[in-house]
Write a structure and sequence with these properties.
It is a single chain. The chain is α/β, with parallel strands linked by helices. The chain has 2 domains: 1-92 and 174-328, 3-Layer(aba) Sandwich (Rossmann fold); 107-171, no CATH class. The chain is built from 10 helices and 12 strands. The chain has helices spanning 47-55, 82-88, 100-103, 110-120, 128-141, 158-169, 188-205, 216-222, 240-245, 251-257, and strands at residues 5-15, 20-31, 36-40, 63-72, 75-76, 93-96, 176-180, 208-213, 225-230, 233-239, 307-310, 313-316. The strands form 2 sheets. Strands 6-7-8-3-9-10-12-11 form an 8-stranded mixed beta sheet, with helices on both faces. Strands 2-1-4-5 form a 4-stranded antiparallel beta sheet, covered by helices on one side. β4 and β5 form a beta hairpin. α4 crosses α5 and α4 (110-120) runs parallel beside α6. It is globular, with a radius of gyration of 21 Å. The chain binds iron/sulfur cluster (SF4). Iron/sulfur cluster binds at residues 250-251, 287, 289-290, 293, 295-297, 300, 305, 317-319. Residues 250-251, 287, 289-290, 293, 295-297, 300, 305, 317-319 line the site of iron/sulfur cluster.
Length: 328
C-alpha cells in the first residue's frame, strides 16, 4: 500500500542578504496511513522547517525548497500551484502549533472559528444549520460542551484552548495532522489529558499524524515510527521498537535517551548533551555531531557518515559502517 506521505531527499535553504543556511539537508522519511511518526531533536534540528515545507508555509522571501520531493498520496506537493496547495492544506493536511493563543482569533467565538475552517473547504456544500451541528460534534469530540460554542477564547483555560485548536484542525477531517509540540505550553497533567485525547481521536478517526516533540515519554506512548533529527539531517530512523529496544543507536540518540536502558521510556525530557548544535552556516566537515560525540574517530572529522540499514532501522554513523568500528 502506498504511503500517505513520503519525503524524499528534502533540502530547505534560508537565504538572507548576509548568509545562506541549509536548515534541512537531504531528509528522507515517510508516514504510513493511520500511523503516527514522531520527529525528535533539539531546537534547530530542522523539525519545524520540515513541517512548514510540507504545509507550503516556509517564509516566502527567505525559505526555499532546493531539492527533493514531498509526495502526499503519490502527488508531489512541491509541483502544485498555490491554489491547489491551499486546497490540500487545511483540507487533507492540518497543522497544530505549540501555542494555542497564536492560533485562535480573540475576537471570534470558538464556534465561529471552527465553522470558518469548515466553510473554507466545504466540498459537501453543507448548509449553515448542518455546519452548526458539525461544530457541536467537533466540540464534543474534543471534550468541550457544545453550548460553549458561543464563548470566546479568553473564557477557556490553556488546555481547553488547545482542545479548541485541535477541533479546528480536525474540522475538515484531514488525512494527516502535523502537531508541532502541541502540549509544550501546557501544565504536565493537562499535557497528559490533551495527548490521551489526541491519541484516542487519531485512532478513532484513522488520521495519520506527525508529532514533533522533545518529550521521549510521549514518543514511546504514541508513535509507531520515530525520526531523530540533528543539524538538519535524519541521523536515526526506525519503528518505535527499533528506537526503544534495539542495542545499536546513533551516539546522539544514545545521548538523548540517557545511558541506562530502563530509563529510556520513563525519561520525560531530552537529557542535556554536552556542547551545542553546530552553527548551521558553518557546519563541521564530516559528521555534524563529531564535536560532541564521545565515540568520534578520525574518519568522522572528514567524511560524512553513510547510513547503516538494518531492516526498518537506519543509523547514519561511521561506528556501524566501519570495520571494527561497531561499539557493541
Ligand atoms: Fe560519532 Fe563518528 Fe558516529 Fe558521528 S559518525 S556520531 S562522530 S561515531
Amino acid at each position: 500500500q502506498q504511503k500517505l506521505l513520503d519525503i524524499k531527499d528534502l533540502t530547505v535553504v534560508y537565504k538572507t542578504d548576509l548568509e545562506v543556511v541549509r536548515a534541512v539537508n537531504g531528509v528522507n522519511f515517510s508516514v504510513e496511513r493511520g500511523k503516527t511518526l514522531g520527529i525528535v531533536g533539539e531546537t534547530g534540528a530542522g523539525k519545524t522547517t520540515t513541517s512548514l515545507a510540507i504545509m507550503g508555509l516556509l517564509p516566502e522571501r527567505t525559505g526555499k525548497v532546493t531539492a527533493g520531493e514531498i509526495l502526499f498520496d503519490g502527488q508531489d506537493l512541491l509541483k502544485l500551484n498555490k491554489t491547489d496547495m491551499r486546497s490540500i492544506c487545511g483540507d487533507k493536511i492540518s497543522m497544530i502549533f505549540q501555542d494555542p493563543m497564536t492560533a485562535l482569533n480573540p475576537t471570534m467565538t470558538i464556534g465561529d472559528q471552527i465553522a470558518e475552517a469548515m466553510e473554507l473547504h466545504n466540498h459537501d456544500k453543507l448548509t449553515k444549520a448542518e455546519i452548526s451541528k458539525k461544530v457541536e460534534e467537533k466540540l464534543e469530540m474534543v471534550g468541550i460542551r457544545p453550548e460553549r460554542k458561543n464563548d470566546y477564547p479568553h473564557q477557556f483555560s490553556g488546555g481547553m484552548k488547545q482542545r479548541v485548536v485541535i477541533a479546528i484542525a480536525l474540522a475538515c477531517e484531514p488525512e494527516l495532522l502535523i502537531a508541532d509540540e502541541p502540549t509544550t505550553a501546557l501544565d504536565v497533567t493537562i499535557q497528559a489529558q490533551v495527548l490521551a485525547m489526541m491519541n484516542e481521536l487519531q485512532q478513532r478517526l484513522g488520521t495519520s499524524m506527525i508529532l514533533i516533540t522533545h518529550d521521549l515519554g510521549i514518543v514511546a506512548q504514541t508513535c509507531d515510527d520515530v525520526c531523530v533529527m540533528y543539524a538538519g539531517e535524519v541521523i536515526e530512523y526506525g519503528t518505535a521498537e527499533d528506537i526503544f529496544t534495539a542495542k545499536k543507536h546513533h551516539p546522539y540518540t544514545d545521548g538523548l535517551f540517557g545511558s541506562i536502558p530502563n530509563l529510556k521510556v520513563e525519561s520525560r525530557r531530552l537529557n542535556p548533551i554536552n556542547g551545542l548544535m553546530p552553527d548551521p552556516t558553518n557546519l563541521p566537515e564530516g559528521c555534524h555531531f563529531a564535536p560532541r560525540c564521545p565515540h568520534c574517530m578520525d574518519i568522522c572529522k572528514t567524511q560524512h557518515p553513510p547510513c547503516h540499514v538494518d531492516g526498518t532501522h537506519r543509523i547514519a554513523c561511521h561506528l556501524y559502517t566501519q570495520e571494527g568500528g561497531d561499539k557493541e
